[in-house]
């Protein structure tokens, strides 16, 4: 069995060299990335026995993804298929005032047609924590059903279920996301949501503390974690609100920082840590990830611990 099992699509990310335009580039750097596998990788590097559940085409590119995850200590629980293709996305980095851009090319990925019986459901039942995100049900109606089924399977088996809203406007509208996620939430114990998603997608007003309290009350979550960018994060658990600031970091690559936060938080909770300790480890893991190229948090527990012990974040319990 694995302590943490995640489920979702992982793609190949193709990135022009820094300062180059996608429309003019003559070479691309290749990275492997997907929200759920990123969380598995971050947790594995922090000492968690982690596995990633998905469907991939039986091809060289499919094996490239599985190879990358195995190299990071994650067990790829892959259902191989002769159909479909590996999804890709392109990330163009640009400083101000140009900003950055992401272009998806993921149509035809076989995970979109995945049914619960096609994947390793027994490993979901045996997990301590099952994790997925709002990206997965946004990909197809079939994945709405499969995501819900796996969440219920994990919950019924006594696993803690964790879910990151992770809203992507290129996949669905806020109204579509709100309706679907509300149906999934009864099977979720721990919710991660960016402050903007809690407001725009889930329809909660007020400050982060009010949104966390409102979400916990309406959907009976065990824990609600609201991430606030440069302002840090806030968690509502057991009627108590705890805040955590950010740790300073030079940003080499911002993608995957939210996934890194979730991996640090979940790794600490799996180790029996308190909410405030888990928030601190999440913030430190996210800070380290920002210094690393690619989507994955290739960090160590010692590095994260050193940042937490050195201080620099804000920890407030009310």
Automatic annotation (TrEMBL):
Q: What is this protein called?
A: Sugar kinase
Claim: Transferase is one of the keywords in the record: yes
From which source organism is this entry?
Answer: Haloplanus salinus
Which PROSITE patterns does the record cross-reference, listed alphabetically?
PFKB_KINASES_2
Listed A to Z, the keywords are: Kinase, Transferase
Q: Which family does it belong to?
A: Belongs to the carbohydrate kinase PfkB family.
- SUPFAM superfamilies per record: Ribokinase-like (SSF53613)
Q: Which Gene3D superfamilies match?
A: 3.40.1190.20
Domain of life where this protein originates:
Archaea
Query: Keyword Transferase, does the record have it?
Result: yes
Q: Which residues form the Carbohydrate kinase PfkB domain?
A: 1-295
**What is a single Pfam family found in this protein's UniProt entry?**
PfkB
Molecular-function annotations in GO: kinase activity
């Amino acid at each position: 069995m694995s302590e943490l099992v995640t489920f979702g699509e992982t793609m190949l990310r193709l990135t022009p060299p820094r300062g180059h335009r996608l429309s003019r580039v003559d070479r691309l750097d290749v990275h492997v990335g997907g929200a759920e596998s990123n969380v598995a990788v971050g947790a594995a590097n922090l000492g968690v026995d982690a596995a990633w559940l998905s469907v991939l085409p039986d091809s060289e590119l499919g094996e490239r993804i599985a190879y990358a995850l195995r190299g990071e200590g994650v067990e790829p629980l892959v259902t191989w298929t002769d159909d479909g293709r590996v999804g890709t996305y392109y990330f163009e980095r640009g400083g101000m005032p140009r900003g950055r851009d992401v272009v998806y090319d993921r149509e035809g990925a076989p995970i979109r047609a995945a049914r619960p019986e096609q994947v390793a459901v027994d490993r979901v039942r045996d997990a301590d924590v099952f994790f997925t995100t709002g990206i997965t049900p946004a990909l197809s109606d079939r994945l709405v059903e499969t995501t819900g089924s796996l969440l219920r399977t994990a919950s019924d088996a006594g696993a803690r279920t964790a879910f990151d809203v992770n809203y992507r406007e290129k996949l669905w509208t806020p109204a579509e996301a709100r309706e679907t996620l509300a149906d999934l939430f009864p099977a979720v114990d721990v919710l991660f949501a960016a402050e903007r998603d809690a407001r725009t997608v889930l329809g909660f007003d007020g400050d982060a503390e009010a949104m966390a309290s409102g979400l916990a009350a309406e959907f009976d979550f065990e824990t609600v974690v609201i991430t606030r960018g440069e302002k840090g994060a806030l968690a509502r658990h057991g009627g108590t609100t705890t805040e955590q600031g950010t740790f300073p970091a030079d940003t080499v690559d911002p993608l995957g920082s939210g996934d890194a936060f979730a991996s640090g938080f979940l790794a600490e909770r799996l180790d029996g840590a308190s909410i405030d300790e888990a928030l601190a480890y999440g913030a430190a893991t996210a800070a380290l990830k920002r210094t690393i190229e690619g989507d994955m948090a290739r960090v160590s527990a010692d590095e994260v611990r050193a940042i937490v012990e050195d201080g620099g974040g804000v920890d407030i319990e009310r």
